[in-house]
Design a protein that fits this description.
single chain; alpha/beta; Metallo-beta-lactamase, Chain A; six-stranded mixed β-sheet; 14 strands
């Protein structure tokens, strides 16, 4: 079993997730903690629940999703992984943070890359990686067929979709990613997005105004 624990952090109201298996190993997905109090909230939860962080897994590397990466790497001595195509976004993160009025002395360096189509294992649990560019060039989502949910990053939201006007984004590519990689999932699949409330694939097929033909 994998439990999904969510937190909402930083002025962008970004959703950070812990994926926790039955052995209490966990992945930290899109750590967006910026303030010290936000870091404490996550570390205290991990300590209180007796969790063992194994990796930092990012759906993409815009600043609001990586504010907490370096601190988590250092605290838990765990690797930071993302898709290789998002490397230009990551390398520009410090400059992007400054543009938005945030402090990020250095962009965190990835310790490895996640490849779409190659299965990921959290203990004995399998997760599928789907390549969903358009919001960023290396956006990916994490899908659990066994438990019926997907971590969608900033690809698909409740009645909305991700921005495509940032460097490396493309609107038509984003729409195609949603149609082929997200809307091919079962309608009952629960969507845990990078911002806002959870939704389902079926609801977004029926009601998402950006996905009407």
């Amino acid at each position: 079993m994998i439990e999904v624990q969510s937190f909402t952090f930083n002025p962008f109201q970004e959703n950070t997730y812990l994926l926790i298996n039955s052995e209490k190993d966990c992945w930290i997905v899109d750590p967006g903690m910026y303030e010290a109090s936000e870091h404490e909230l996550v570390t205290e939860f991990i300590s209180r629940e007796g969790l063992t962080p194994r990796a930092i897994m990012n759906t993409h590397t815009h600043i609001d999703h990586i504010f907490g990466v370096q601190a988590m790497k250092e605290r838990y001595s765990i690797p930071f992984l993302a898709h290789r195509d998002d490397l230009p976004v990551l390398q520009n993160a410090a400059a992007s943070a400054q543009l938005f009025g945030f402090t990020m002395p250095d962009s965190p360096s990835p310790d490895g890359y996640i490849t779409a189509g190659e299965p990921l294992m959290l203990g004995n649990d399998l997760l599928e990686v789907r390549f969903t560019p358009g919001h960023s060039p290396g956006s990916i989502v994490f899908y659990s067929a066994a438990y019926g949910w997907v971590i969608s990053g900033d690809v698909l939201f409740y009645q909305s979709i991700g921005r495509s006007d940032l460097p490396g984004g493309n609107h038509e590519t984003l729409l195609q990613s949603i149609r082929t990689e997200m809307f091919s999932l079962p309608d009952a699949t629960k969507v845990f997005p990078g911002h806002g409330p959870a939704t389902t694939i079926g609801f977004e097929k029926a009601h998402n105004p950006f996905m009407k033909d």
